[in-house]
Amino acid sequence: MSSPRKLTPQEEARLAQVRANFQERRKVSESLEGIGVRVGVYSGKGGVGKTTVATNLAVTLAAQENDVALFDCDIDCPNVTRVLRISEGPIQNGEKLVPPSRFGVKVMSMAFFQDNEDEAIVWRGPMIHNAINQFLHSTEWGDPDYMIVDLPPGTSDAPLTVMQTLNLDGFVIVTTPHELAVLDAKRSINMIKKMNLKVFGIVENLSGSVFGTGGGKALAEEMELPFLGALTMSADYTNSQGPASLESDEVGAEFKVITDNLKAQIEAGK
Ligand SMILES: Nc1ncnc2c1ncn2[C@@H]1O[C@H](COP(=O)(O)OP(=O)(O)O)[C@@H](O)[C@H]1O
Ligand SMILES: [Mg+2]
């Protein structure tokens, strides 16, 4: 048997890289271990209601006696803390960060580490990846049944990096009934499919007389995906002090349908 050849410096470097990647993946999976189902809320466009769906979905699940975490990963527009009116950040506990809790939901957001709320941060892929890993390692999540993730919109580097880093179990796609939003949603769904990830279903938001109705359901049928439900365009969202699903019976009922359908899809996929 010939003795093993000495590795070239290039091979050594590659091996070190592989080892480092492996260790990092192990660390991430360790920090995600206690977390039940990881659901990304995603859309092709901004402003269609991702944050609204993510926060209300999280509080609805929490009101149903689930342990829920909400992770705001929309790096350019981290709005979850604004919607939930959280002003204090996480508390340091040794090396760990204890996330603030609202309506029974543990909330972690990129916004906590932004000095000025109005300032946009320009994030590059590796920075996003590192920041999210850092968040995952250092946050004391406990053992939530669900982690809802508010993702950056679109099909650029940012959402892709978040999806890959977080290793999400599946996605809720938010669209409006409008034709262009539906087209964007279709692109996003195709991207998720290309990554071999799962779409739990589609939510149509801003449904009603202004933008029409039915676009989300038609998209679901066309893409052969579950339709989770529609959310009517309503002043209840702007009039509410907290999450509209807790303050308005109509909004609450719509979110109950969406949450029940999502839970059924999660169960079906197990
Ligand atoms: N069904 C709805 N009816 C009325 N206003 C809504 C509805 N859904 C969202 N909004 C409002 O639209 C704006 C954008 O929603 P948001 O959830 O922040 O979108 P995104 O996170 O996709 O950018 C917010 O001011 C929100 O309160
Ligand atoms: Mg948002």
Fill in the keyword field for this structure.
globular; 270 residues; Rossmann fold; binds magnesium ion; two-stranded antiparallel sheet; 8-stranded mixed sheet; alpha/beta
Task: Write structural notes for this entry.
- The structure is a single chain.
- The protein is α/β, with parallel strands linked by helices and 270 residues long.
- The protein has one domain: Rossmann fold, CATH 3.40.50.
- Helices cover 44% and strands 19% of the residues.
- The chain has 10 helices and 10 strands.
- The protein has helices spanning 9-32, 50-63, 80-83, 125-138, 157-166, 179-194, 215-222, 236-239, 244-247, 249-269; strands at residues 37-42, 68-72, 91-93, 96-98, 101-102, 105-109, 146-150, 170-175, 199-207, 227-232.
- It has an 8-stranded mixed beta sheet with strand order 5-6-2-7-1-8-9-10, sandwiched between helices. The chain has a two-stranded antiparallel sheet with strand order 3-4.
- The radius of gyration is 20 Å and the shape is globular.
